[in-house]
Amino acid sequence: MTIEARIRELGNRHRSLDETIQQEMRRPSADPIHLREMKQRKLRLKEEINSLEARAC
User: Fold this and answer.
1) Which of 12, 15, 21, 55 has the highest CB neighbour count under 10 A?
2) Phi, psi of 31 (to 5 degrees)
3) Which long-range contacts (CB under 8 A, 24 or more apart) does 23-31 make?
4) Which residues contact 43 (CB under 8 A, 6 or more apart)?
5) What region, left, alpha or beta, does residue 12 occupy, with left being phi > 0 and alpha being psi -120 to 50 degrees?
6) Residue 37: alpha-carbon gap to chain centroid
7) What is the chain's pLDDT, residue by residue, as a tens digit (57 residues)?
């Protein structure tokens, strides 16, 4: 898999996770621990994307 393809894949996962987080936050009984874990995963994805983008340049 090329770096560009990996960046696209991670970007798709990042957007999907963001949508899931937004949906969870709208729920009245949102689980704060689960939200924190999802936000941490989203941050790790963003960091990996940034790292790959820096390598691709």
Assistant:
1) 21
2) -85, 110
3) none
4) none
5) alpha
6) 11
7) 899 999 999 999 999 999 999 999 999 999 999 999 999 999 999 999 999 999 987
